[in-house]
Amino acid sequence: MNELLPETDAPGRPAITTRTPVSVIMPVRDEQRHLAEAVGHVLAQEYPAEIEVVLAVGPSRDATEEIAQRLAAADPRVTVVPNPSGLIPAANNAAIKASRHPIVARVDGHALIPPRVPAAGGRDLAGDRRGQRRGHYGRRGRDPL
Questions:
Q1: What is this structure's pTM?
Q2: Which residues in the chain show pLDDT less than 70?
Q3: What pLDDT, in 10s, does the model give residues 30-64?
Q4: What is the distance between the alpha carbons of residues 130 and 33, in angstroms, rounded to a whole number?
């Protein structure tokens, strides 16, 4: 199923389809306990197009940077960019700048997203000219609130 967006708000830009590649950006800092599993959930998504993960790593008091670098070395779909300020807006901007795909999804560095989130987002974007999707998929962490 490859649904095309009937019109685009930006002439010259390709239409978003259910097979449009996705860049998942993750601002991360002090996420050593969850980062590898969170990235694994993103890379294991059931989606018919390419998915990349861009990790914007802020100054951490743990091994987040080392884990991010190992993940990038092990999988070409993972990229690491610096976020020296440690601020989330700066991380988002750095990751978006480094992303390669027309759909950008932001995921927390400790989130364990369900297996079909990009597919649902691609379907929604293919029918929504605003070009945005928001969602809360429920807490699945292991720590108390």
A1: 0.77
A2: 1-14, 117-145
A3: 999 999 999 999 999 988 899 999 999 999 999 99
A4: 36
Query: In angstroms, what CA-CA distances link 29 with 67, 101, 133?
Result: 11, 24, 24
- Judge whether 110 and 34 are in contact, CB under 8 Å: yes
For tokens 């997203």, the residue is 113
Phi, psi of 121 (to 5 degrees): -65, -40
Place of tokens 């292991």: 142
CA 42, CA 51: separation in Å to the nearest integer?
8
Separation CA 57–CA 69 (nearest Å): 10
Q: Which domains does the chain have, with CATH numbers?
A: 22-110 (3.90.550.10)
Place of tokens 């259910």: 18
Which SS3 state, helix, strand or coil, does residue 105 take?
strand
